[in-house]
Every structure is written in structure tokens, then in C-alpha cells.
Design a protein that fits this description.
single chain, mainly alpha, Sodium/glucose cotransporter, 76% helix
């Protein structure tokens, strides 16, 4: 990013001080597990929507998204326009009202109520593995970023990031995380917006960008007309994009991801929960413009970069004056921390609610008290953060962290969505049908990811893994359910869609 000036360090310091102040402010409102994990169900819609966006968009997305646009053009926008917006609309109008009225605390908890405790345990453990790995990956990304920008030692960078996130996540819980995310979204949008404006100015606007790219000797017409075709593993195959990303992965991510839904579950009303998802969809429409267009501008200005991932750092180094460099540094660090804090909080929520709480009740015969749950939540937040920081350097050998994350997601997204849909909309889904569908589906994803390009046409098979695991899990759940004992109508009361949506809420919606 080039050498930072005094004004840059002042902006960075002000941003860090603001982040830490938020954690201190919200700590005084945290008195129970409900306050810590669900923000006392007091989150407004605008905070929910903004937090969901920065939970989904991290520093990896900023770098690799712009880099992919440098290589492939505007087709990369499909990951947000196809892979986010429709799913957020589904979540707002169908799933959020259901979760809210059913009184869902965590998604594994719901699966346990709808199916059985074995399903709850398996799903919780799979999610814990994914979230711990995600926090570690984000911490390693922070290390690489601080090494490249400030010359820091990687281990030092990991622990500095962990310490900053820990200060507000441990003290203020979900409320502090969400409100910090709000500030981080503003910083991200201002920083990337400034970079986009300067990049387009330098390249001569859209017409200048078109002329410069069309003047390049490589397949320039295909660059602008590019959709999502497969080409030697460098492009995403359109069947995977349409049927897996657009239907399976995106829906599973926004309706079956604890880190996303936890924000809606912490809303102050059902209306705020739904409006929060719609707000997130609105902000997501702007992400391709702020992230991918700078990558395309870098293609026009610097067509000979050795690595497309260097597109954004090169623009920052060559175009931004002192002050804006510091703002862009803060934007990248905001993107890093927003992903770390979100998955950290959700990881602890699931462990406390779906692993420790049932064991505590089984051993003691009593439910977990609010005060003990709060102490446990804060202690576990610190423990998970330390464990993730210790494990983070193991990702040093990973070539593409974005693909690692997508592969981890593909391990459970398809099976989770299958049993979630059947559990909500089909009364005939049985306890052991759901359990078998989840276990066999997750096992299948492990096998398919190992086989990889030996059975798929893409070097990144996670799109196909999610697609096939969804249909296999769906078939297994239905098949087993036809031959196993079904729950009675009384047992299903308040669990299936029709009975839940018929309940009247205080929102009168």
C-alpha cells in the first residue's frame, strides 16, 4: 500500500478508538445470556441489515472479488446479484417470520426440536468446526494484510487483531458486534467509494475503461460479454452458478447460517427482523459496483499485473493521496474484523446453547442460569479467539483462502437446507429421516470434495458439491421418513410452517 503518512495513522487511530469505545459502551447493558447472544432482542432494522452485509463481505472478498473482476469482468457480480439478493428476499418474507414466531434461538436448537437431539448435536458440531476455521482464516488474512501494508510480523498481526476484536466482542456481545459492524460498513463504503471514483476518473470513466480494455490484445470482447462459462478451471460453470449458487448455496447461507440469522433473531420486533433482511439486500446491490468495478478499472490502468489479487493494492498505492490511504486501510481492517467478530459470536452462541446447555441440564437437572451463561459466554469468546489465533498460521500454505471458505461451506449447506426445508414445510419428515439426511449428506460432501476435479468439470467443485448433497439429503430424508415413526400433530405444533405462521404476534404482521 505504500508508506503511510501521519494523517493516515491519525485516521487509523481514530477508527480503532471508535471500535473499542463501542464495546465499552454496550458492556453496561449486558446482564444475561439473552443480552449477550441476542442483544436483548433490541436491534433496529438498519443495524441488522448493515451488520449482515459486513458479515458476508470480508477483506478476502474485497481482494479476490476485485481480482476476479480484473480477470473475468462483471460476471463476478453474479456472486452478489444472483447469490445474495434473491435469497435475502426469501429470508425476509418466508423464513424470518417463521423463525421469529417459532421462538428460535439457534438453528441447531430448531433442528433438535423438529427432529431429535442427535440431529442437533451433529449440526452444532459441524457448524462449530466451520466457524472456528473461519475465524482462523480471517485472522490469517489480517496477518497477511498487516504484513504487506505495515511490514508487521505475521504472528504479531494475528494477536493484535485478536486483541482488538476481543475487547468489544467479550464485553458487549452481539450488540457491540452489530453496532461495530455498522461503523465498519460506513468506513468500507466510504473507502471503496473513494477508490472507485478516483480509479474511474483516472481511466476516463466507463467509455475510457471500455476503450482501454478493448485496445488490449487479449480476448477483450469476451471480457465484457463474459457470463459464467467454464474455461480450463478459470471460470465458474453456468450450471453451478445458476442451480447451485443461485438456488442452493445462497438460500442455505442466508436462511441457514447462524451468523446471519442471529442478527434477525436479535431484532426488537418481527418487522425489524424482516426489514433488516431487506436492508441487507439493498446494500448488497451496491457491493459489485464498489468492489468489482475497481478491479475492472485496474485492468484498464495496469493490464500487466503479475497477480490479479494485486489489483486493489496497486490502485491504492498509485492513486490514493495521504489521508485516503489511511481510510482505505481502515476499510480493509473493518472488513477483516467484521467477519471475525460475527463468526466468533455465533460460534460461542452455538457452543453455549446447543452443546453446553443440554449437558448442564442433563447433569444438574436445572437449566443454565442467565448469569452463569453470561460468564460462560464471555469466557468462551476469549477461549475461541485464542484457539483460532493459535491455529491461524496453519492456513499459510493455502493458495486461495476464498476457495477454502467456500469448500468449508459446501460441507454442510446442501444437507442443512434439505432437512430445514422438509422440517418446516413437510409434516411427514421424521426424527430419524432428518438425522440420516444430515449425516449422509455431510459424509457425501467430504467424499466429493476429496474426489474434486476427478468427477467434476471445475477445479473448484464446491458449487457441484452443494448441489448434489442437497438432492441426496432430500432423497434420504424423504425415504427414511416414509418408514419411520412420525411425530403427532401435537408434537409438531409450533414447528411446521402453517401452525407457526397462524400465531398472532405483537407486531400484528
Amino acid at each position: 500500500m505504500g508508506e503511510l503518512q501521519s494523517i493516515d495513522y491519525l485516521i487509523i487511530g481514530t477508527y480503532m478508538l471508535g471500535v473499542l469505545s463501542i464495546g465499552s459502551y454496550f458492556a453496561k447493558y449486558i446482564h444475561s445470556t439473552g443480552d449477550f447472544f441476542l442483544a436483548g432482542r433490541a436491534l433496529p432494522f438498519w443495524a441488522i441489515g448493515m451488520s449482515i452485509v459486513v458479515t458476508d463481505i470480508g477483506a478476502i472478498d474485497l481482494l479476490t472479488g476485485a481480482g476476479a473482476a480484473y480477470d473475468r469482468g462483471i460476471a463476478q457480480a453474479n456472486f452478489d446479484w444472483i447469490g445474495s439478493v434473491p435469497a435475502l428476499l426469501l429470508a425476509a418474507f418466508i423464513f424470518v417470520p417463521y423463525y421469529w414466531r417459532a421462538g428460535v434461538y439457534t438453528l441447531p436448537e430448531f433442528l433438535g426440536r423438529r427432529y431429535n437431539s442427535a440431529t442437533r448435536w451433529v449440526h452444532a458440531l459441524v457448524l462449530l468446526f466451520f466457524m472456528l476455521a473461519t475465524v482462523s482464516i480471517m485472522l490469517w488474512t489480517s496477518a497477511v494484510f498487516l504484513r504487506e501494508t505495515l511490514g508487521w510480523n505475521e504472528i504479531t498481526a494475528i494477536w493484535v487483531t485478536a486483541a482488538i476484536v476481543g475487547c468489544y466482542a467479550i464485553s458487549g456481545g452481539l450488540a457491540a458486534v452489530v453496532m461495530t459492524d455498522v461503523m465498519q460498513l460506513v468506513v468500507m463504503f466510504v473507502g471503496t467509494g473513494a477508490l472507485l471514483a478516483l480509479a474511474l476518473w483516472e481511466v476516463g470513466g466507463w467509455s475510457g475503461l471500455s476503450q482501454k480494455i478493448l485496445a488490449q490484445p487479449n480476448e477483450t470482447e469476451a471480457y465484457f460479454q463474459l457470463l459464467v462459462e467454464h474455461r480450463e478451471g478459470t471460470q465458474y460453470p453456468w450450471p453451478g452458478m445458476v442451480f447451485s449458487l443461485g438456488i442452493i448455496m445462497s438460500t442455505a447461507y442466508f436462511v441457514g447460517n447462524q451468523a446471519v440469522m442471529q442478527r434477525a433473531l436479535g431484532a426488537r420486533s418481527e418487522w425489524d427482523a424482516k426489514a433488516g433482511m431487506l436492508t441487507a439486500a439493498l446494500f448488497k446491490l451496491a457491493i459489485p459496483i464498489l468492489v468489482f468495478l475497481p478491479g475492472m478499472a485496474a485492468r484498464g490502468l495496469f493490464p500487466d499485473l503479475e497477480s490479479s489479487v494485486a489489483a486493489i493494492p496497486t490502485l491504492i498505492d498509485r492513486l490514493l493521496p495521504p489521508g485516503l490511504k489511511g481510510l482505505m486501510f481502515a476499510a480493509f481492517f473493518a472488513a477483516l474484523m467484521s467477519s471475525v467478530d460475527s463468526y466468533l459470536n455465533s460460534c460461542v452462541t452455538i457452543f453455549t446453547g446447543d452443546v453446553y446447555r443440554p449437558l448442564h441440564k442433563q447433569v444438574t437437572g436445572r437449566d443454565l442460569s442467565g448469569r452463569l451463561g453470561l460468564i460462560l459466554g464471555r469466557s468462551l469468546t476469549a477461549f475461541v479467539l485464542v484457539a483460532a489465533a493459535i491455529y491461524a498460521p496453519r492456513f499459510k500454505e493455502s493458495e486461495t483462502l476464498y476457495d477454502v471458505l467456500q469448500t468449508l461451506l459446501s460441507m454442510f449447506q446442501g444437507p442443512t437446507l434439505a432437512i430445514l426445508l422438509l422440517g418446516i414445510f413437510w409434516r411427514g419428515a421424521t426424527a430419524w429421516g432428518g438425522f440420516a439426511g444430515l449425516v449422509i449428506g455431510v459424509a457425501l460432501t467430504c467424499v466429493l470434495n476429496i474426489l474434486g476435479d476427478a468427477v467434476f468439470i471445475s477445479d473448484n467443485p464446491y458449487l457441484f458439491v452443494s448441489f448434489w448433497s442437497f438432492w441426496v439429503s432430500l432423497g434420504v430424508t424423504i425415504s427414511i421418513s416414509l418408514f419411520t415413526k412420525k411425530k403427532t400433530p401435537m408434537e409438531l405444533e409450533g414447528l411446521v410452517y402453517g401452525s407457526v405462521l397462524s400465531q398472532v404476534t405483537n407486531d400484528n404482521v
